TrEMBL record:
<protein>
    <submittedName>
        <fullName>Alpha/beta fold hydrolase</fullName>
    </submittedName>
</protein>
<dbReference type="GO" id="GO:0016787">
    <property type="term" value="F:hydrolase activity"/>
</dbReference>
<dbReference type="InterPro" id="IPR029058">
    <property type="entry name" value="AB_hydrolase_fold"/>
</dbReference>
<feature type="domain" description="AB hydrolase-1">
    <location>
        <begin position="12"/>
        <end position="94"/>
    </location>
</feature>
<keyword id="KW-0378">Hydrolase</keyword>
<dbReference type="Pfam" id="PF00561">
    <property type="entry name" value="Abhydrolase_1"/>
</dbReference>
<dbReference type="InterPro" id="IPR000073">
    <property type="entry name" value="AB_hydrolase_1"/>
</dbReference>
<dbReference type="InterPro" id="IPR050228">
    <property type="entry name" value="Carboxylesterase_BioH"/>
</dbReference>
Length: 212
């Protein structure tokens, strides 16, 4: 399907798919789904297969970027280019990371009140991005993100041969392992004045990177 949203210059004239991962947005919320990175990647692959897509340019932010990397590793036929915005590359992120804080709860604790406390703590912008997520899916996704993939997302990204762009917000600090990523052919772009949500903080720079 074509996107119902207004196209930027980067996507004008192209078919654009906006995908809510399982348990997020308006997608289904299966209680028996594990919500690991591999599960999300397989669900995304199924969506692309159903749409008849091959060689897509996949744009992913944060956990979505990690899912995009795993997708490219598992189904290289589906991906021709990756644009990653502060994608998670390593398991076991710092305790201050949102995924680590969510995963510090048991699933029962998170459903009983941890989700509400998390939404209060992160503030209105972050809460707006998570408010349509099923709490069970949010917790299991965070646990899966903390666990990471095998091999790690970083190693998969380094081994891919497709065009790869990684956007890092300058306010987030230096990207760990940047030199190794660049040596592997990943184009790393530091976006001035932007934090983790580059698309909100610097939309023009984000659109330019998507346009290539």
């Amino acid at each position: 399907m074509r996107s119902p949203y207004p196209c930027s210059g980067a996507s004008a004239g192209r078919r654009s798919l906006f995908v809510d991962l399982p348990g997020h947005g308006i997608s289904d919320r299966p209680a028996d789904f594990r919500y690991t990175l591999e599960d999300h990647a397989d669900a995304l692959a199924a969506a692309l297969d159903a749409a008849g897509v091959r060689g897509a340019e996949v744009v992913g932010h944060s956990m979505g970027g990690a899912v995009a990397i795993v997708l490219a590793g598992r189904r290289p036929d589906l991906v021709s280019r990756l644009v990653l915005t502060e994608a998670n590359l390593d398991p076991d992120p710092p305790a201050t990371a949102g995924s680590s804080r969510i995963a510090s709860y048991t699933e029962e604790e998170f459903l009983a009140g941890g989700c509400a406390r998390t939404l209060e703590r992160v503030g209105p912008l972050w809460a707006a991005t998570m408010r349509l997520a099923d709490p069970r899916a949010l917790h299991r996704s965070a646990v899966g993100l903390v666990r990471g993939s095998r091999p790690t997302m970083r190693r998969v990204l380094e081994r891919l041969t497709v065009d790869r762009v990684y956007l890092q917000g300058a306010l987030s600090g230096e990207l760990q392992g940047r030199a190794d990523l660049e040596a592997a052919g990943v184009r790393v772009i530091t976006v001035p004045g932007a934090g983790h949500n580059v698309m909100f903080d610097a939309p023009e720079a984000f659109a330019a990177a998507v346009a290539g």
